[in-house]
User: Which sequence fits this backbone?
């Protein structure tokens, strides 16, 4: 059964009507905000069912008229709270990667330790973190903990970015029309448009555009972590991201055939799962032309083209295209204020 509670980590919203999609974005925007905090002051706290922390938070939520199920959903998923001074924020699963980035730590081994140990390790690292953190609090949970210094991210309004994009597409591509909209906390916003000759996907982040061209390759990072874990488990071999890159690109390496096969099979499965998910959400990738943008798409180009699930497609070679597009949209939004 699909999760329909918008605060839940597993929420999935599919919108066949553009007005319904915009209402969703507006509602989430009203129930979300950004906040800058000093990175070294951030702390993680493990929360379990029946704990004193759970009881106190549920009482506080009840007093403030908030949904207590937010706490229950957090315990089921991440089991973590972000503590800033004396205030607690439930952590959504899509925020974990950005929290690890702020702490400057990574590794598959972290997923195997108890939540209290996990929190303690990250807290020790966060104490040495530099600069500010930009927190995205959405529907009662932390959705992202990004770099908060002035050169890192610019905050954009999701609804306005989408509207500007729609305006641009309809003005510049004759016959272009809305096909479907999709929202989940990890992907944030996905709008699909169909035109007389083209069809494409428009993907948005959490409303933050990075100015230095850094992208959100969360899915690919998860793939790399899974590959590293499996190779280590089955072959007792340590493989890093650079090695995985080379194998995915088809370059010659010194790894045995079994390692190469694992990387290629897992990458192929990963790509097929993504395309299958888009298909399930009503996006016909064989109709018209699909435009792929971003470094992740370029890396996986061979697997995308060989999947048999895409019709005509174009790959934008400029890996900074997403950042440049967000920059243009930011300037448009800024002028309209």
Assistant:
């Amino acid at each position: 059964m699909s999760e329909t509670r918008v605060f839940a980590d597993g929420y999935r919203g599919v919108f066949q009507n553009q007005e319904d999609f915009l209402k969703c974005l507006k509602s989430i925007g009203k129930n979300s905000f950004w906040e800058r905090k000093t990175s070294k002051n951030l702390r993680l706290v493990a929360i379990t069912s029946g704990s004193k922390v759970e009881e106190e938070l549920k009482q506080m939520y009840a007093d403030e008229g908030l949904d207590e199920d937010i706490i229950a959903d957090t315990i089921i998923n991440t089991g973590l709270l972000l503590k800033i001074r004396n205030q607690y924020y439930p952590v959504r699963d899509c925020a974990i990667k950005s929290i690890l980035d702020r702490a400057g730590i990574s590794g598959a081994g972290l997923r195997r330790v108890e939540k209290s140990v996990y929190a303690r390790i990250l807290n020790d690292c966060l104490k040495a973190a530099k600069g500010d953190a930009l927190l995205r609090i959405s529907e009662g949970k932390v959705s992202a903990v990004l770099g908060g210094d002035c050169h890192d991210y610019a905050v954009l309004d999701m609804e306005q970015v989408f509207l500007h994009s729609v305006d641009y597409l309809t003005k510049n591509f004759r016959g272009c029309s809305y096909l479907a909209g999709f929202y989940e906390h990890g992907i944030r916003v996905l709008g699909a448009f169909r035109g007389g000759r083209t069809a494409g996907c428009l993907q948005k982040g959490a409303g933050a555009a990075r100015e230095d061209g850094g992208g959100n390759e969360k899915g690919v990072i998860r793939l790399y972590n899974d590959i590293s874990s499996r190779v280590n488990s089955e072959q007792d071999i340590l493989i890093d991201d650079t090695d995985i890159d080379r194998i995915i690109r088809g370059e010659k390496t010194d790894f045995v055939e079994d390692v190469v096969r694992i990387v290629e099979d897992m990458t192929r499965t990963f790509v097929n799962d993504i395309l299958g998910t888009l298909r399930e959400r009503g996006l016909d990738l064989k109709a018209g032309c699909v435009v792929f943008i971003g470094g992740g798409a370029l890396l996986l180009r061979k697997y995308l083209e060989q999947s048999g699930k895409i019709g005509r497609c174009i790959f934008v070679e400029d890996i900074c295209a997403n950042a440049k597009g967000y920059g243009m949209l930011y300037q448009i939004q800024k002028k309209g204020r």
Summary: The chain is about 45% helix and 20% strand. Residues 195-218 have pLDDT under 50 and may be disordered. The longest strand covers residues 177-184.
